[in-house]
Design goal:
- The complex is a heterodimer of chains A (220) and B (492).
- Chain A is mainly α and 220 residues long.
- Chain A has a single domain, classed as Methane Monooxygenase Hydroxylase, Chain G, domain 1 (Up-down Bundle).
- Chain A has helices spanning 3-44, 48-77, 85-112, 121-147, 152-179, 184-218.
- Chain B has two domains: 3-342, no CATH class; 353-489, no CATH class.
- Chain B has helices at 3-33, 39-57, 59-68, 74-93, 100-114, 121-156, 160-191, 213-243, 249-265, 269-277, 290-304, 312-342, 358-366, 385-395, 400-410, 419-425, 431-439, 448-458, 469-489; strands spanning 203-205, 209-211, 353-355, 381-382, 411-416, 444-447.
- In chain B, β1 and β2 form a beta hairpin.
- Chain B is globular.
- The chains are: A mainly alpha (220), B mainly alpha (492).
- The interface between A and B is medium-sized, with 25 and 26 residues.
């Protein structure tokens, strides 16, 4: 391996590191946009402002896909991290699913426009906040997998904590929805959205579980 | 150099080829097997550094191997190398762990037994003890190195991809060091037996670049190793890579470096000098097994992690190999020498005569040898080193230094110096050295030491310095030149 090839390898590596960082940033951004979008929806319904923010989520999802494909192609075409690239590939795809989940949920809100009475707004906002924090924690765990392997466990425990919290909130919210005087179809509709939002935290927890195994494999 | 010489060297080249095919995998196996480094990159780096190691630093370990027994006829050297090569090949095919070092040591002992030569017990003990020390040392080196890498990765918080890039570069650097150490340490296994009968003479290119006869021999052997690397090692590398698949690339790096450090320690004359200058104990320069160094490093790391997963049966098989390999190789060599001599009429060993003439006894007395017990043997002549020493040993139990003195001073020859032979010999000597040889024109010496002393009287350039590590290089250079003169002027 000549000097030129070594410098090319390091240049390529730096570029790819930046791509991975950007991809993970996109997930956090997607989570924050989701939180903002939901707040707009609860306040103004499927308004023009909501559509704008949904478009932002769509672009973000598309950029996330492009980054993921580019990273995967580079990893395989240049046979980088041969022993761990299968794990990295799975991790990136799982993380990409989180953006898809955020986007999918916003689309559901836009299409189905559930009628959520004011009394449940706080519950929705709290659940969303917890889910977003849970996703932020799993992104931190993923970053740690790349840079600081022993910190993965710390971030994973946060993911577990927020996922449990999200489950509790989801249950509480659904109980109060079904205890209300709303028509059954309305209750079922709201409950469906509560479950979909909570599912994002469940997906984050699944990723954290797999990350724990990847982290053990990554230890030298 | 005629074709016969090349034919006889072929067995050494075959041994070199097997070494390249098998041992290169210890250096680059994991890197190539895990696809961290491409095979051709590995093969090119490995070949260049094996050749450099062999030519630049190959002399140290070869010297110790030479002490074990000096195969003094080209057909004998051919058969010793072939017996070692066949043993390595057969044992590898049978799936038994084998080391080229142990095979060649066995073959040399086989030749010693066949030719009634004496096996230097001190050299043998030194060599055998390193077989135990080598894997242990590799394990000892691997553990702190692993801790260091672990610390570096943990506190450096290096990105996985950057770590991958660093590891690739480090694996290539470690591989280059490993290949250099392999060449320096193991070339003695490949070409060591041919050193006393080297068909080459020293030459220099434009007075800048000197290649001694031994270096030329080692260059040839190293090229054979390089051919082995290019033609056959890929398969072995991929197998090794898969076998060691649970090992992460940074750990693979630790193993390669530990292996290389150990091979280097047992090969570096420079390090030996530095240690001696610092008043520290030196490490014997001995060819050691690169496979066993790798196994030692892996076991060291295994013990660090609690000792689970260590395959003790593999260890047992390696231990058994220390005994079976030299025995098989010695047996194969002994039988093959018999056939080569009696069926193909080749002289596999030159008869070396010894006597205890008054001059020899007088000289031995100067060296502090208890000559009183030799009085009855005065004037007797012997046609094998073993018989010669056995007879004296009956009179006076000999230690290994006394045996060495008797062999050196008692070896009988006939060295006749003529200007014609000097001219034909094309000796690569310094001007004062050559003048000293010319000054002895027309004289005949019965013993090597007489010629050496006559030359030392003529010129300071022929004088040996007191025997210690710091003077070793100087003395080896003079002894090598003297060996060339003995071969050139020998009329016996």
């Amino acid at each position: 391996m000549g000097f030129e090839r070594v410098t090319t390898l390091f240049r390529r590596t730096k570029h790819l590191e930046q791509d991975i960082d950007e991809f993970l940033e996109k997930i956090v951004e997607a989570a924050l946009i989701f939180r903002r979008a939901l707040s707009i929806y609860l306040e103004h319904g499927a308004s023009e402002e909501f559509d704008d923010i949904l478009n932002r989520e769509k672009h973000l999802e598309s950029r996330g896909d492009t980054l993921r494909r580019s990273i995967e192609t580079h990893l395989y075409s240049h046979t980088l991290i041969p022993d761990l690239r299968g794990d990295v590939l799975s991790l990136l795809e799982d993380m990409d699913d989180l953006i898809n989940e955020f986007e999918g949920n916003l689309f559901r809100f836009s299409i189905q426009q559930p009628d959520i009475p004011d009394e449940f707004h706080r519950g929705f906002a709290e659940l969303t906040e917890t889910v977003v924090t849970c996703v932020e924690s799993v992104v931190m765990a993923a970053r740690a997998f790349f840079r600081d392997i022993r910190a993965v466990r710390d971030h994973n425990s946060k993911v577990m904590f927020y996922e449990t919290e999200a489950d509790k909130m989801s249950t509480r919210l659904q109980r109060s929805v079904f205890a209300s005087d709303l028509p059954l179809e309305n209750k079922r509709h709201i409950s469906y959205f509560v479950e979909r939002i909570d599912d994002i935290a469940n997906a984050a927890e699944d990723i954290a579980d797999r990350l724990a195994i990847y982290a053990i494999k990554r230890e030298i | 150099m005629d074709l016969t010489v090349l034919l006889f060297l072929a067995s050494g080249l075959f041994l070199g080829w097997t070494l390249g095919a098998n041992d290169a995998a210890n250096v680059f196996g994991t890197a190539v097997g895990t696809r961290m480094v491409r095979f051709y990159t590995a093969a090119i780096v490995c070949s260049i550094f094996v050749i450099l190691g062999a030519v630049v630093s190959g002399g140290g370990a070869a010297h110790t191997l030479g002490k074990l027994g000096s195969v003094n006829a080209l057909p004998g050297a051919f058969m010793a190398a072939l017996a070692a090569g066949v043993t390595v090949y057969a044992m590898t095919r049978s799936g038994l762990p084998v080391s080229t070092t142990q095979a060649i040591v066995g073959a040399i002992i086989g030749w010693n037994l066949y030719s009634d030569s004496v096996t230097d017990a001190t050299a043998l003990v030194t060599i055998v003890s390193t077989w135990f020390v080598c894997p242990v040392l590799a394990g000892v080196v691997a553990v702190p190195l692993y801790k260091l890498v672990d610390w570096f990765v943990y506190f450096g918080k290096i990105h996985l991809l950057r770590l991958d890039a660093y590891t690739r570069a480090a694996l290539i650097a470690a591989g280059a060091f490993g290949a250099y150490s392999l060449g320096a340490n193991n070339i003695a296994n490949v070409m060591g037996v041919f050193v006393p009968v080297s068909p080459f003479t020293d030459f220099s290119v434009a007075g800048i670049f000197n290649l001694t006869s031994v270096q030329q021999l080692f260059l040839l052997g190293a090229i054979a190793i390089a051919v082995g690397i290019f033609t056959y090692s890929k398969k072995v590398m991929l197998t090794v890579g898969q076998d060691l698949a649970p090992m992460s690339p940074p750990v693979a790096w630790v193993v390669v470096v530990a292996h290389s450090v150990v091979l280097f320690l047992f090969a570096s004359e420079g390090l030996e000098r530095v240690l001696a200058q610092a008043g520290l104990p030196t490490i014997p320069l001995v060819p050691v097994s690169s496979s066993q160094a790798v196994v030692g490093a892996v076991i060291g790391l295994g013990l660090l992690k609690g000792g689970h997963g260590i395959r003790w049966r593999v260890l047992g098989a390696i231990g058994a190999g220390w005994i079976t390999t030299p025995i098989i190789s010695a047996f194969v060599c002994f039988v093959a020498l018999f056939f080569l001599e009696n069926v193909f009429n080749q002289q596999v060993a030159r008869v070396v005569r010894y006597d205890l003439s008054p001059q020899v006894i007088e000289r031995l007395a100067v060296e502090g040898f208890p000559v009183a017990s030799l009085a009855d043997l005065n004037g007797r002549r012997y046609f094998s080193a073993k018989k010669y020493l056995d007879v004296i040993d009956d009179q006076l139990p000999l230690d290994s230094d006394q045996r060495r003195l008797l062999l050196y001073y008692g070896e009988l020859g006939s060295y006749h110096i003529t200007s014609d032979t000097i001219r034909k010999g094309r000796l690569a000597l310094s001007r004062p050295q050559l003048d000293a040889v010319i000054a002895l024109d027309g004289r005949t010496y019965q013993y090597k030491w007489q010629l050496a002393e006559a030359l030392a009287r003529q010129s300071v350039d022929w004088r040996l310095k007191p025997t210690d590590v710091l003077n070793k290089h100087h003395n080896q250079r003079i002894n090598r030149r003297l060996d060339e003169l003995y071969r050139l002027f020998d009329r016996y």
